[in-house]
Structures are given as C-alpha cells and as structure tokens.
Amino acid sequence: MSARHVVVVGGAGAIGSVVAAVLAEQGMRVTVADFADASAVVAALPGSGHAAVPLDVTDREGVLALLGPDASVGHYDALVYAAGTNYTGPVATTDWDAWDRVLTVNLKGAAYFGQAASLNLEANPRECSIVYFSSTAGLVGEGGASVYASSKFGLIGFMQCHASEIARFGARANAVCPGNIDSPMLRTLAAQVGERNGVSTEETLAQFAGATAFNRLIDIREVAQVVAFLASAASTGMSGQSVVIDGPPN
C-alpha cells in the first residue's frame, strides 16, 4: 500500500515545516507547497517520495492547477492549509493595505484552496481530510486583533460550510485553533504589541504565556501532532469541528 499523500500549503514556514516533518515521521508522503523555496524543508524530511512545489495562494488559477480536478500534485489523501500572515492594531487606526493582505492570504487563499479541493473531490470522490489553520483568535476576539480575528473567524465559518458540502464525497474538513504558539510570527506580534503598550517584547511574551494555566506558550510540535491526527484516516468520524490546542484559562 502506498503512503498517504498529504499536501501542506504554507509548508516552508516555521509552523508548516514542523507540520510537514511530523507527517513524514508518521510515514506519510508530503508535498510542500509554498511561495518560498521549500527544497531545504523537503530535503530534511524522513522517508522518501516527498516534493516541493511553488505556490502563491493568492493566485486562484495556480491553486486550481495544483489541487483541482487535474491536480499537478497527483492523487492526494489530505490537505493542510497552513499559509497565514498577521497584523495588529486598533480598529481606529486600521491599516487597510494590511487588512487586504491578511484577509487575502488567511481567508481568500483558503477559499481558493477549498474550491480546488471540492472540484478535485467531485471528479474523484474518496476519503480525504482537509485541515485549515484557524486560531483561538477565530473563536474569541480581543482588542488590537480585529483584522487577524476577522480572517480566522471567517475561516471557521468557511470550513463549516465546506465540511457540509464535501461530506457526500466521503471527505471531511476541520480546523485547528491553536493558542499562542512559540513561533517567529508570535514574537513579531509581541514586539508590535509591546511597542504599543510601552513594554518589552519579552514582557509581552510572558503575558501571552500566562494567559492559560499552562503558564507557557504552545510548542509547534504539539499543534503538528493534532494536525497529523486530523490528516490521517484515524479521524474519519470528525468533520466541521474546530479543535482548540491551548491550556485552560488561568
């Protein structure tokens, strides 16, 4: 039996690359699709048959060519949408160029991805898992996060609709909603929030870590392990769900 094939969109990033590594460690064949060069990520994966392909998630035709009915990546068993970007700032001073960039990558790109998957599944119905990266910011809003939260709230709604539509093909869609992940994106966010609040980046990170009873940030591998479960055939009884990866409130 051939290895389960998973395409990780945004797999060259700090989070996506760890997701790709965990999938490969569990015996899956991984295709990493990213705007950035993913060759080094793929070269480091255990196992064989992995590949790196270029992809701009804002290019609908490119997404369709890669994942649609005549998918250039070939047959796939699971898809992970790990592409994403962030912006922080109060509603009153919203940078609308940043708004467009965040919504385009986090939500519109995910919609292109979902449409391509739907068309592929219609042409070839099968058991298939689609995993979207949302966030706890897609469940509860907070000051300064209106742009990012809008994209992640919207993504959960999109995922729920998509899950309902593809169930007839034997496929499913779920979202992971991590809390504060120890990642370069979070450190950049902490620097921006800290500057706005007049405190250091490290103090801000400590505040983020203390937001749950874990009193620490979530490790990327902890998120990747949940993604790997959802991408596997072990999760066939789950669809339309938003899985929170975070500690209990402090």
TrEMBL record:
Q: Which UniProt keywords apply?
A: Oxidoreductase
Gene3D superfamilies referenced in this protein's UniProt entry, alphabetically: NAD(P)-binding Rossmann-like Domain (3.40.50.720)
**One Pfam family for this entry, by name?**
adh_short_C2
Question: What superkingdom does the record give?
Answer: Bacteria
InterPro entries named among the record's database cross-references: NAD(P)-bd_dom_sf, Sc_DH/Rdtase_CS, SDR_fam
The record's family statement is: Belongs to the short-chain dehydrogenases/reductases (SDR) family.
Q: Which PANTHER family match?
A: DEHYDROGENASES, SHORT CHAIN (PTHR24321), ESTRADIOL 17-BETA-DEHYDROGENASE 8-RELATED (PTHR24321:SF8)
The name on file for this protein is SDR family oxidoreductase
Supply the source organism for this entry.
Answer: Antiquaquibacter soli
